[in-house]
Amino acid sequence: ALTGWNATGTNYALPTHITNDGQDDTFSVKYVATVTTGFDQKFSVTPGSVVTVSFWYKATRTDGAATGNTARIWSVFTDSSSATPLAAINPPGTTGSTDDALRNNNTYLPQATTWTQVTINSQVPVGANTFTLQLRAYNGSTASFDNISFVSPGAVYHLHHFLKLMV
Asked: Which 8-state DSSP code applies to residue 140?
C-alpha cells in the first residue's frame, strides 16, 4: 500500500509498486489503465506561500493510438470546508483549469518512453488551506511516476524515499 495516498475518484485505484524500473534506481509506481484512474494526497498549505510540485513520468498509449490521453497532474487548492471534493480555488494569475499548470492546463502529458521531469511552482491562493496533489492515468495508457515531491513552507514530501522503504 502507498501509505498516505488515496484513490479519490470513480473507479480510481492506487498504482502498482514497481521494483525494476525507476527514474534513478529501480523503484516507481505504474498504471496500465483500463479506466481513468489516479492517486492523491492532501497537504496543509499557507495562503501566499509558494509550493513546488515535481515528478518524473513515462506515459504511452497501449491501445495502438499514436496520440491521445495518457496521464496528467490534476491538483487543486481548496479550503477544508468545501462541500465539493476537489472544488478548486484558483492560484493567483489563473482563471481555471485551462491556464493552471497544476491541472496541466486542461491537457495531458506528452507521450514519453523515457523518464521525463515536470516541475511546477504555484502560489497558494487566499482562502486555501489544503492542497490535493493528484496524478492520473487514462484508459488505454501505461503511465509510470517516480520521485514525486511536494515542497511548501513547513512540509516536504518525497515519494521516492517512501518507495525505497517499501522493499
From this structure: T
